[in-house]
Amino acid sequence: AELRDVLGFLRRLGRAGETKGPQQHDLHRRGANTLFNIWIKYKPRLPEWYYNEKLLKVGDSLAQIKEYKLALVQCYGRYLQQFVSVSLDDITYDVHRFKSTFFPNGFRDKSAALTFHALQERNVCIYQMVFSSDRNLQNQESLKTCFNVLSSLRLTMQVALPQENLCWLIYNGTIHIYTICRHLMMIGQSAKVLEYLLWASICMESSIPLLSVHYLTWRATLYTAVCQCYFDCQASIHGETFARRGLIKFDELKQLENISSSPENSETKKIFREATLKMSVMIFKRAVYEPRRKPKCYFRHKLRVSLKEAQSVPWPRTTTERLLSEMFEGVAAQFLAILEALSDSSRRVLHPTPPVPDENGIRDVISELFFAGLEILSGNSIKKQ
């Protein structure tokens, strides 16, 4: 009852407003002190297992209402204090020390799952606190903390991966890694986050329960992020190769599904279609440009005339549109492929300067992509098909 009261009080306080004045700070401090006193008061009066479960359950509730610091200090940190009194960051780089410190009784111990949960959620709270105080990660210390969190999440998943019953932790870990990596990719850190996204992808493939169709959409999302990282790093061939690898993995799963007794339903077909589309878009992102790269001595007429003439021709009118029609069904998929092919973190697409490298063939492709995109938006491509 006391925990319910303090959580309700903190929820109401959170809803009161974003800007916290002196009065709200005092009220918040009062809530934090009340929680602290509850733990001190009841710890000697409760069974250890029950007390520990309550610590993490309250921590999860606090995290849901974005009280990350309180969840970290008063719940997850308090739980982990039973294992170590020094800084936890000193342990999360050595796998052997990590295992011996947090899992002295092995992974079959009843408290092992709680410990894994506390370790993972501690990292999430640390990241969320950094995110709230430095959203654009302009401070080098904030950046360093994010990479420390990624390393710690990876180590926790590495230790948990062989335990099939902890597949939920692996799944949650991939979500946390993806969330942080996406944030870092937006500020130009793709080269550094690539290894973590690759790790998350391999974890999904290495956990048997996570290989089911139910998790395929998420696997495809992770694979797409890996491909986009490669493209950001100007390693487009590796991005395309990884996308083709993803298609092979999806085909293997589809064959296993066909062998199984249950017939393929419409939802399963939709999941496979969406996953395949994401990989195909990543393949198109490179495939649309590569055949058009020509030696500098190669001469070709200006494309402007041919595009003007092509307006009266039925779709597909250009090489780019033919490739779109071959690879994608429907204008929504085609338009998604166009957007992805035009996006490039190394240049501003709508900025009136030539693409890099300054090649006529690449300029032609970009013109054709815009040409096809405008046709799709106008609805004329459907009429002409």
UniProtKB/TrEMBL annotation:
Record GO biological process: cilium assembly
InterPro entries xrefs: CFAP54 (IPR027912)
Domain of life: Eukaryota
One Pfam family here: CFAP54_N
PANTHER family, sorted: CILIA- AND FLAGELLA-ASSOCIATED PROTEIN 54
Protein name, as recorded: CFA54 protein
Record organism: Chloroceryle aenea (American pygmy kingfisher)
